[in-house]
Prior knowledge:
mainly alpha
Amino acid sequence: MKTLGNLIWLLFGGILIALIYYMVGLVMCVSIIGIPFGIQLFKLGTYSLWPFGHELIYKQQEPGCLTLMMDIIWIMFGWWEIALLHLGFGLLFCITIVGIPWGMQHFKMAFASLIPFGKEIR
C-alpha cells in the first residue's frame, strides 16, 4: 500500500514539489551562507518524493543549540510559508475520505518544513 500511495503521490504533484525543493536548494547553495539551508531543502525534496512509509526524526544527540538557532533563522527568512502551503494542501485533501492519506502526508511535510534542522529521513 505504501508503494501505491507513493506512486499516486508522485503522479499528482510529488515530483513537482521535489523539483521545486531541489531547484531552490541549488540556488541556496550558490553562497557559502546558504549551503546549510540548501542541504535542508535537498532533504525535504527527497522526503517529498516518497513520503509514505518515511518520516523525519531527530538524529541522535539532537536537537541542540545550533539546530535551534538554524531553525529560528529558517523561520525568520520566510520558510514558514512553505509549512503553511503544506498545511493548506493537507486541509484541502482531507475534505474527502479518499484524500485523507495524502492530506496526512502534507501535514507531516508541514511540520518537517517548519523545523528541518537536526532531522533525518527514516
